[in-house]
Amino acid sequence: MSQSNGILAPRLVAADSHQIEYINDCVQDVASDCESLAYALNMIEIHDPASKGIVVAVRTALLANHKYAAEISIMLSELVLLPQMEVSSDA
Q1: What is the model's pTM?
Q2: What are the CA-CA distances from residue 43 to residues 35, 36, 38, 40 (Å)?
Q3: Which residues, in sequence order, are CB contacts of 1 under 8 Å at separation 6+?
Q4: What are the CB-based long-range contacts (under 8 Å, 24+) for 28-35?
Q5: Closest Cα to residue 91, out of 6, 3, 2?
Q6: What is the pLDDT of residues 36-46, one digit of tens each?
Q7: Could you tell me if 71 and 30 are in contact, meaning their C-beta atoms sit under 8 angstroms apart?
Q8: Domain assignments of the chain as residue spans, ordered by start
Q9: Among 26, 30, 33, 74, which is most buried by a count of CB atoms within 10 Å?
Q10: What is the Cα–Cα distance from 67 to 34, expressed in whole angstroms?
């Protein structure tokens, strides 16, 4: 890093790795729930084309949210693995 601590310090945020892991667990639960609900919608038999379109749209949204939550979970996991840094108050 070629920048001084005085420039970086305002951008740094203290984060407890246990808190990040808890948030990651919550995000994984959301991802899992979205996926489960999306697949559960496959079990509904609908003969009305309009209703079938709604079910398809909801299933698509749930799967997209599952994918997004899984990506967030990966990012959170990477944050937990980052090495600890200390910033001195020296300028």
Answers
A1: 0.66
A2: 13, 11, 10, 5
A3: 8
A4: 28/69, 28/70, 28/73, 30/65, 30/69, 31/65, 31/66, 31/69, 31/70, 31/73, 32/66, 34/62, 34/63, 34/65, 34/66, 34/69, 35/62, 35/63, 35/66
A5: 6
A6: 999 999 888 88
A7: no
A8: 15-81
A9: 30
A10: 9
